[in-house]
């Protein structure tokens, strides 16, 4: 039940997540435990470990601002990510936040210290040996999870595997360990955890063997492909581990949940097929988020791009460029017809209602127009998401009296309805649901997946291709499981020739050494882009593939004609044409620099430790 699964959220709310601090460690056990007495029993370790779960970030619309999927259309010319504008500079310290509202990955050293504190006390505890192995495994999982973040961002970093004493200076004055050393430490620790953690963990929604294997899958795919495409050794070592761990997880969880929207808009994920670990929320426990309203308010700036929308396959499993089912892009009804249903669940489908009897923009009165196409997606969505608990058309933004008259709804033509506008005509509503009314909607309690089988299937498919072992059998146990609930024909491997998608990446001559993406790999990467849209993977995927030059294309929106709007409407179309794709930001000025593939270290760390070296290309001060 949800009450059980939110136990670590309750601990956070009670202030126990940071229970180990310097003052705490200096006290004697006069009602306050010492470090030794805090780590004696199984229950001591269990309570402490609950606080470690807070390290999992919540999903957010901000997650993919730095990608080719989303254009953050707030201020023309300056609302984009600093990475894309080529204006990224080294942060002043590890707590400095970027446009995704997150502090730098270097901050995770504080969390790693918390994990090491638990690990350092295992051998001196009263636990049986098998219990020690279990809690060591839990600690290794969490430490690896955040060392993975550090490795991804910076490459080699200092490795700290215990709580430093006063006379130890590894983090203060030590040099960076190499990427090879950090990657091997992570893999070795995760392999230990996989073999020694309790199979079922510590109950429902806890770190267990399958969750450890899921992290091995995620980490090893990243590291293996990073090494391959960035010219480093031992790529296959990590890809083989991805293959092995992924196959085991898929063997335990061979099926995906039948309703994609349930994964992101359910009040309780405990019984949802294929969810390995999730972040639970409860209003009663004061553990809430505001994700639904966050992307669907009057400031709906997270606009999906033309490039993303073009990526969704048609129902026959072919790209829009070659499918006989594609009806055209100049009308949104045509564009969304006969497409992958995940498009409808990511980007709000078009509709128009008759509001002639309504008196204000907030009135609930509406009826269908006489044009059948205006009701087509309203009715179709009811079949795709049967209960009105999640997504429903016409759109209501939490107001019991607020109905939006149509989609698309442009920011330059509000038509007397001020909310949920878009500069591109496309609106991201992946996390939108109608559980709560406005006012309560910042107390949302829909659970969020952390590890799910859909990702593991995609990891496996990609690793198998990179190992030259991809086949129809692999496609059927992975990609085609995902497509079966999205109204997309199964992948037929023999049909995917060099001509399958004429827009496939053939390499960019502006980037020396850039490579052509093979036709089947292009389709595997497409499936990953669609399935994991707005879950925070895209930027790191482009980084590991060494394809961040995708970010340097101008982001465009829907096809429109100026003549479709009243005279004087300020419609900004690419190239200043009378019809074409909506434009918001100009194309980035320049090429993606090679040194941008790694993050800059915080400047204060370079001052504190002169033995640290800044990543190549980034100024030291």
Give the strand order of the largest sheet, numbering strands 1, 2, ... along the chain: 5-4-6
Largest sheet: 3 strands, antiparallel
List low-confidence stretches.
3-33
Which percent bin holds the helix content? 25-40%
Radius of gyration: 25 Å
Structural class: mainly alpha
Q: Count every beta strand, where a strand is a DSSP E run of 2 or more residues.
A: 9
Strand content: 5-15%
Rough outline: globular
Short summary of the structure?
This protein is mainly alpha-helical and 621 residues long. It has 22 helices and nine strands. It is 35% helix and 6% strand.
Search tags:
mainly alpha, three-stranded antiparallel beta sheet, two-stranded antiparallel ribbon, about 35% helix, about 5% strand, globular
Describe what this molecule looks like in 3D:
- The chain is globular and about 75 Å long.
- Mean pLDDT is 90; it is low at 3-33.
- The chain has 621 residues and is mainly alpha-helical.
- The longest helix has 26 residues, at 129-154.
- It is 35% helix and 6% strand.
- It has helices at 2-5, 7-13, 22-26, 35-38, 42-50, 108-120, 129-154, 170-173, 179-196, 209-229, 235-252, 291-294, 306-311, 332-336, 341-346, 372-384, 453-466, 472-477, 479-483, 519-531, 538-545, 603-608, and strands spanning 70-72, 275-279, 302-304, 351-354, 367-368, 406-407, 448-452, 556-561, 579-583.
- The protein has 22 helices and 9 strands.
- A 3-stranded antiparallel beta sheet has the order 5-4-6. Strands 1-3 form a two-stranded antiparallel ribbon. Strands 2-7 form a two-stranded antiparallel ribbon.
């Amino acid at each position: 039940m949800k009450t059980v699964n939110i136990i670590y959220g309750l601990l956070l709310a009670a202030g126990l997540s940071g229970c180990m601090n310097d003052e705490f460690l200096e006290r004697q056990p006069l009602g306050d435990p010492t470090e030794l007495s805090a780590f004696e029993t199984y229950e001591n370790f269990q309570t402490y470990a609950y606080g470690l779960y807070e390290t999992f970030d919540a999903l957010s619309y901000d997650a993919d601002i730095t990608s080719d999927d989303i254009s953050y259309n707030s201020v023309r010319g300056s609302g984009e990510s600093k990475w894309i504008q080529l204006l990224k500079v080294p942060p002043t310290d590890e707590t400095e936040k970027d446009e995704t509202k997150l502090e730098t990955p270097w901050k995770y050293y504080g969390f790693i210290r918390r994990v090491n504190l638990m690990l350092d006390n295992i051998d001196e505890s009263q636990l049986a040996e098998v219990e020690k192995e279990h809690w060591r495994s839990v600690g290794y999982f969490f430490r690896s999870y955040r060392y993975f973040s550090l490795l991804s961002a910076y490459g080699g970093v200092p490795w700290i595997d215990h709580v430093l004493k006063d006379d130890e200076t590894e983090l203060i004055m030590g040099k960076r360990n190499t990427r090879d050393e950090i990657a091997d430490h992570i893999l070795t620790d995760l392999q230990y955890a996989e073999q020694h953690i309790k199979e079922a963990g510590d109950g429902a929604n806890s770190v267990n063997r399958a969750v450890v294997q899921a992290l091995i899958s995620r980490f090893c795919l990243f590291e293996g492909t990073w090494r391959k495409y960035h010219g480093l050794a031992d790529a296959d070592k990590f890809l083989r581990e991805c293959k092995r761990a992924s196959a085991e997880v898929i063997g335990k969880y061979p099926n995906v949940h039948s309703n994609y929207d349930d994964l992101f808009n359910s009040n309780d994920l405990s019984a949802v097929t294929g969810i390995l670990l999730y972040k639970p929320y409860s209003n009663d426990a004061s553990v809430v988020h505001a994700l639904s309203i966050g992307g669907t308010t009057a400031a709906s700036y997270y606009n999906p791009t033309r490039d993303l929308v073009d990526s969704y396959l048609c129902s026959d499993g072919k790209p829009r460029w070659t499918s006989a089912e594609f009806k055209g892009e100049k009308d949104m009804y045509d564009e969304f017809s006969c497409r992958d249903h995940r498009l409808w669940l990511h980007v709000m489908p078009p509709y128009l209602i008759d509001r002639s009897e309504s008196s204000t923009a907030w009135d609930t009165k509406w009826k269908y127009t006489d044009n059948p196409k205006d009701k087509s997606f309203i009715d179709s969505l009811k079949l795709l998401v049967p209960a009105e608990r999640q997504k429903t058309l016409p759109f209501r933004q939490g107001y019991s009296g607020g109905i939006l008259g149509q989609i698309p709804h442009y920011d330059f033509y509000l038509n007397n309805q001020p909310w949920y506008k878009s500069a591109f005509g496309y609106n991201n509503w992946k996390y939108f649901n109608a559980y709560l009314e406005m006012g309560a909607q910042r107390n949302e309690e829909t659970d969020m997946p952390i590890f799910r089988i859909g990702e593991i299937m995609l990891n496996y498919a990609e690793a198998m291709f990179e190992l030259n072992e991809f086949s129809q059998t692999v496609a059927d146990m992975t990609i085609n499981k995902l497509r079966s609930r999205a109204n997309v024909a199964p992948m037929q491997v023999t049909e995917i020739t060099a001509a399958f998608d004429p827009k496939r990446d053939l390499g960019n001559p502006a980037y020396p050494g850039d490579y052509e993406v093979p036709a089947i790999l292009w389709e595997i990467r497409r499936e990953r882009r669609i399935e994991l849209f707005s879950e925070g993977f895209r930027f790191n995927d482009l980084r590991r593939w060494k394809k961040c030059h995708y970010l340097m294309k101008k982001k465009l929106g829907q096809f429109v004609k100026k003549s479709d709007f009243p005279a004087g409407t300020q419609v900004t179309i690419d190239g200043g044409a009378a019809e074409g794709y909506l434009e918001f930001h100009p194309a980035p000025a320049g090429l993606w620099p090679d040194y941008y593939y790694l993050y800059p270290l915080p400047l204060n760390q370079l001052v504190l430790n002169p033995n640290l070296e800044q990543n190549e290309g980034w100024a030291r001060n």
